[in-house]
Amino acid sequence: MIRTEAEYKNAQEKLDQEQETLQRQREQLEEMDLSDEETQRALEPLISFRDQLREEIETYEQMRRGDLSALHDLRSIGRWLIGARIAKGWSLSQLADRLDVSVQQVSRDEQNEYEGITARRAQRILDALGVRFRLEIEEPVLGGEEDREKVAA
Predict the structure, then answer these.
(1) What are phi and psi of 138, to 5 degrees?
(2) What percent of the chain has pLDDT over 70?
(3) CB–CB of 15/50 below 8 Å?
(4) What pLDDT sits at residue 146?
(5) Distance, first Cα to last Cα, the chain
(6) Using CA atoms, how far apart are residues 110 and 74, in angstroms rounded to an integer?
(7) How far, in Å, are 21, 34, 43, 122 from residue 27 at the CA level?
């Protein structure tokens, strides 16, 4: 996951390099008179890596635009918090200052995508970012009137 502008620029450069490498490999394989299927199979790892890198770049660009998807699963809250920081245009250092922790701490936390974060800590980050968060329950906890009557009794 791309988390900083420096990582974003490096990823863009890497994508350009991978595109050139892919093109050179394709030309070399075509010179070997391989079938289209054989060429494609040989290039699959390079294509897969390039596509994954392109997807990471696109995800970062979406976050930077503030295009964060709804949080549907609390296991994804770490990525969402990182996205919120990026959307806000804040560096790791700016968030660290607001949280009164070291940049290294924020960097480690984001590298681990806030694995195991407590609700209190997540709320502290949201507060620092100035993000209001609303939790909606789509599925009712109790199935129907019959279940509610059992609880009431």
Answers:
(1) -85, -40
(2) 91
(3) yes
(4) 63
(5) 50
(6) 16
(7) 10, 11, 11, 50
Residue whose tokens read 């700016």: 94
Tokens at 76, concatenated: 């994804």
Structure tokens at 70: 């709804």
How far apart CA 134 and CA 71 sit, in angstroms, is 10
H-run or E-run covering 35: none
Predicted TM-score (pTM) of the model is: 0.78
Measured between alpha carbons, how far is 17 from 146 in angstroms, rounded to an integer? 63
Query: Which contacts (CB < 8 Å, 24+ apart) does range 86-92 have?
Result: 86/3, 86/60, 87/63, 88/129, 88/130, 88/131, 89/64, 90/129, 91/4, 91/5, 92/3, 92/4
Q: Is the pLDDT of residue 104 over 70?
A: yes
Structure tokens given for 39: 């060429």
* 149 compared with 106, residue with greater pLDDT: 106
Say if residue 74's pLDDT is above 60. yes
- C-alpha to C-alpha distance for 49 and 55, rounded to whole angstroms: 10
Q: Which residue shows structure tokens 């390039």? A: 50
Amino acid, single-letter form, for residue 19 = Q
